[in-house]
Every structure is written in C-alpha cells, then in structure tokens.
Amino acid sequence: MFKKKNILVVGDIMLDKYSHGTVSRVSPEAPVPIVDIKKIIFKPGGASNVAQNLSALGMNVTLLGITGDDYELKELIKVLRLTDIKFDPVKDLSIRTTLKSRIIGNDQQLMRLDHEDRDKSNMHGELLKRAIKYAKNSDLIVLSDYDKGSVKSVAADIINFANKNNIKVIIDPKGTDYSMYKNAYMVKPNELEFSMIMGKIKNKKDMIAKGKKLKKDLQLDTLLLTLGKNGMALFSKDSLLTFATSRKDVYDVTGAGDTVISVLAASLASNKTLKKSCELANIAAGLSIQQLGTVSISKSDINNAIRKS
Questions:
Q1: Known catalytic residue at 258
Q2: Active-site choice (16, 139, 172, 258)
Q3: Which of 16, 151, 167, 202 is the most buried (most CB within 10 A)?
C-alpha cells in the first residue's frame, strides 16, 4: 500500500499518561469519584504520536522537537524504543516535557491533568539547525503544531528550505495565526481550528468561500478541512472534493487528527494521488475513533477496513 519513505516529523513532543482504575464510591471530602488505580500506561503524544503512526505504516521516521530533560522524557524514550523511530530531542533544561495525564474510571475519562511550559523555550535555533540537517534526506516533512511553542518559530524557514528542494510540507495546525505556514504544500485544520481563523461556519456555501480564501491567502497547494461527522473537504487548485465520514460509533477522538496527518503523509510520500490519500486517511480516522486513547493504525488495519466496506 505504501512505499518505505523517509519522513521528518517536527513538532510539539508530548507524553500521554493513562491511569486506569475502578470507581465504586464518592469521596467524603468532596463530591468527586474515588478512582482505585489498577494500571498506568504511557504512550507517545502530540508529534510523538504522529511519528509512531508513521512508523506503524512502514515509514522511516525521524522525530524532532523541544523537550525538558526529565522523568517524562525518559518515559517517552522508553516507549519509543519499542519502535524504529529516530528520536533526536532538543533538550532545554529550563522547561518541562509536556505531559497529558488522563484519569480513566470504569472505562470513562474523568479528568485530564496537563503539565507544560508553553512558549518558554529559547532553543528554536538548535531545532531549526537539526530540522534542516534531517530534511536534506527526507521525502516529506510533517509539522505537528499543538501550539506549545516548538513549531511556529521554525515553520517558515523549514517550508522555505523544503520548497527550494521540492519536498512537500504538510501541517497539522493550531492557534489563531497561520501566517507562518504560508507556501506549504498542505495545511489540515479541523472545524474548530478553521473557525478560530476564519470565523464560525454558517453553512456549506460559507465553508467553501472561507476555505478558498484561506488557501489563497496562505498560497497553499492544498487545504484539507476535517469536519468530524461531516467528513472532509479538500481544496485543491480550483476544485473542491468532499469525503463522507464512515458511520462509526465514536468512542474517543483522541489522536484522530494525528492518524489523518500520518496516513496523508505516508500516502503522499508514496506518490498516491491527493484524492486517494484523503480516502485512505478518512478510513483510518474512522478506525481511530473507535478505540480509547491514541492508537496506531497499520496498513493491515486499513486494508481490512477496505475489504469490509
């Protein structure tokens, strides 16, 4: 399905922690459930999850981002050792590695605790230096921007280098300013992210007008808008293609965006058409939301889903 290509992922590095337990009573101290923790699982999060997804799809992956030098980084390194991802973190001793800690009681997420130092690092020069070094041997670059501070300062320089060397850059964006993504091959916002930039979508006609405007303003080759239960909309050249979502029960949307960007990257790097790449990403997203937490969708998962459809 996909050729083995070299993919560079630059983004916000995170560790996801899942504390699973049972709930049988309410605390006498406050009206909150008491969760008796039975197991704790660590998973790659943010750009790390994108890298893991790409690795599961058979890609050669290099992962870059800014982290602390702490317990969370050590746990992330342990998890990534189970893959063949080349992880080269830029360590900043003045910040903490981003941690998202989820409390799961009776198979339901009850709370999330975030532990981060957003926009506090000054190591972007080193990150850019390493990104350019690895980009020289990359077939495609993914910028996984969770608006934690790693991506925006280096995005324009990476895109400029990539364009000069005919390397596609696709971006999963966050925040209220996309100007640094100008001239990228693709930007892939979801509906909420898109509305933060362009205003609330009133109807399909309004969505199309705003999508065309954003694509033109940023001088993108393509804009892919993911619309949850309404599927996806692809703005390419002067055309618009829509993809209906598969009718699946939604169990957990965590990491679904990472799944989409990963399948798109693997497919585009393998020289599949935009339309085919979006179709495969749409199928993978449908598989992702049926499982708890971040998951890696493999080529065989996608093939099985295609056969069953």
A1: yes
A2: 258
A3: 151
